[in-house]
Amino acid sequence: MLVFEITIALLLAGAGLAALSRRIKTPYPALVALAGAGLALIPRAPTLVLDPELALTLFVAPVLLDAAFDASPRDLRANWRSVVGLAIGAVVATIAAVAVVLRLLVPDMSWAAAIALGAIVAPPDAAAATAVLSQLRPPYRLLVILQGESLFNDASALLVYRLAAAAAVAGTLSPGRAIPVLFVVTVGSVVLGLVLSRVVIRMNARIQDVATAVVVQFGGTFAVWMLAERLHLSGILTVVVFAMATARRAGGLISARVRLPSYAVWDFAVFTLNVLAFILVGFQLKGILGRIDSRTLLDFIRIAAWVCLTTMVVRMLYVTGTAALRRWGRRVRSRGAARDGDTVGVSKRSSIIVGWCGMRGIVTLAAALALPTAGPDGPGFPHRDLALFTAFAVVLGTLVVQGVTLRPLLALLRLEDDGSVEREVRLARVETLRASLEATSGQPAEEMTWLLRRRYEVMLLRAEEEEVSGGQVPKADTSGARHASEVDGAIVRTVTSAGRKRLLALRSSGTIGDAAFQRIEQELDVEELELQHLVPDSTAGTS
């Protein structure tokens, strides 16, 4: 009961810290991490050990799906060199550097254990960085690169982590066996994610009850992860591919009345899981502090400080060094301006921001919690207490040091949004309204048809004014439609469906990216639900 009471209290505290973080312009995970550290110092706080096999599934699967669902394949393709360089190159460099540092500081730690711990702390979490950056409106390309990196660096780091952790427990590490396994796992995970996306989205499209739909969405996410793990594939990579493929099909199959509330539930779930991860680490740190003496604690702090410093320095050197090398190569070849897909190193200031956005988060915590413990089934991970302590210290250190200073650094470098997303939003708004207006022309000459036509004429006029001027569109006066005593549901479905089809076509053609698509999709959902209220049969307007 005490654990439950503390958990509820800390969830409420987490909500308060999130509100405070928005006020002081700081990533909320930084404040929650401090709260988790404080939990370990409470004298009578209980110790709690989570089943290691549950940790990654519970914390990473839904959080990763939520992030991957919002990713834009078009923008990732345009910046693939930067994303791949960070997701693979920076991760490998960090793993290698951390492993060397650990071997120097802890001579009796095997290479397999050192590599596993390096893989745990290697992948940055873009959520903390984008929480700050999105408030300051930096160049959209920075957000794309950081979000893309956070999706695929988790997969690359945790593939290495799984192999190294297993080797550390078994006592052997064979690179000759690991490389073919990595290839098979990668290809198999991509194929499985694509296949499962087709199955699950068709099943979800048939569900119109919101509660049932949300349960199936979460259940499907965990099922995808667990199936991949049972097949000895990468749960992370499978979920990423599954989410991105599902996002491309969901727009035309899931109804607005299901989509809007389900998004709210997912936001709540991601926030809750972040808070719970820090709570569980705090509980486990309490047990670690009770098992070690003061001398060992000082050694843990020294080792964790060196590892944290190594992760920050290696990332900054990798990003700025790669950027400088590409600029030098470009000058030598005299190619002038950068091409699409070149690294963010085209700009010195941008490379500094990307290099400083190395905050670790929930994936690092979940991977540390997932390290096997000693028991009847076999030996545990060697130096598990040190690994968990170090992982939390890296998360706390990077969130506090880099997270708190990111806002002033961005202001100092004066990086500003280029307005590309806003231009796409204005274009998409005009096109979807125009499609809806055109759809009213072929409808029967009824009062509702006239009212809808007038509604969309006003909205389109103001949207076109915004597209030309770049200003905000005032809310159109469409109250006239509310006076109709009865609305033909078929007309509403036809009109709203026309706008949605135009929006899907704009994304499919690459005219707009997913950021603009999601903004307009939400506007269309709200518009559709508003019109559905005028339909006597409340289920008539679902699409």
Number of domains: 2
Tell me what portion of residues adopts beta-strand conformation. under 5%
Low-confidence stretches: 336-346, 478-487, 538-543
Mean pLDDT: 82
Q: Give the name of the CATH architecture of the largest domain.
A: Up-down Bundle
Order of helices and strands: HHHHHHHHHHHHHHHHHHHH
Beta-strand segment tally: 0
CATH T-level topology of the largest domain: Na+/H+ antiporter like fold
Shape: globular
In words, what does this structure look like?
- It is a single chain.
- This protein starts with a helix and ends in an 11-residue tail after the last helix.
- The longest helix is centred in the middle third of the chain and has 40 residues, at 294-333.
- It has helices at residues 2-24, 28-39, 52-69, 73-78, 80-105, 111-121, 126-136, 140-170, 175-205, 210-230, 235-253, 256-291, 294-333, 348-356, 362-369, 384-413, 420-440, 447-469, 489-508, 514-532.
- The relative contact order is 0.13.
- It is 76% helix and 0% strand.
- α2 (28-39) packs parallel to α12 (256-291), α3 runs antiparallel to α15 (362-369) and α5 packs antiparallel against α13.
- It contains 20 helices and no strands.
- The protein is globular, with a radius of gyration of 25 Å.
- It is an all-alpha fold and 543 residues long.
- It folds into two domains: 2-413, Na+/H+ antiporter like fold; 420-532, no CATH class.
